[in-house]
């Protein structure tokens, strides 16, 4: 496996997989990144580079991850990482390039898109629909029948109540309790909703 990203999320991914997965190389555009957890950082991915294994994009920022995935999708396949301690229903679906971390729970009939991060101890209950490039932060709880739009961030320890729909490129603040729908490009902090700029994303 190759890894793209040599910062905090990259360290987490290396720590998750190195006991069972051979790491062929680690890339990062930042020229100051030379080493991560004892592995050399090879720099940016050369245009002529030929991958002989799958790639995992270890970037926590949703917009950056989406742009990289779209740029590289024609050159390499993306792998999934599911920690042994996670509970993942056999009747749930996971796209490509996703990570499900320690203690996370994904229940029956959930559908997760591509490049989704389900962080430590997060819980996604039955019949949830999670769009591409979403990040569910540690200990967040999604009750049943929730929809999360592309690129949205659900903050640590946030709770989304049953049936709520979160739009595209939204932010739910840490510890928030969301009891009503959130339109595209808005953020929910505590018990209030605010508008925020919607990032421009290249269409697939």
UniProtKB/TrEMBL annotation:
The keyword Ribonucleoprotein does not apply. Keywords: Acyltransferase, Transferase. It comes from the Bacteria. Acetyl-CoA binds at residue 135. Belongs to the transferase hexapeptide repeat family. Substrate binds at residues 7-9, 60. GO terms for molecular function: acyltransferase activity. InterPro entries: AcTrfase_PglD-like, Hexapep, PglD_N, Trans_hexapeptide_repeat, Trimer_LpxA-like_sf. CDD domains: LbH_AT_putative. The active site is at residue 126. Residues 2-72 form the PglD N-terminal domain. The keyword ATP-binding does not apply. This is Sugar O-acyltransferase (Sialic acid O-acetyltransferase NeuD family).
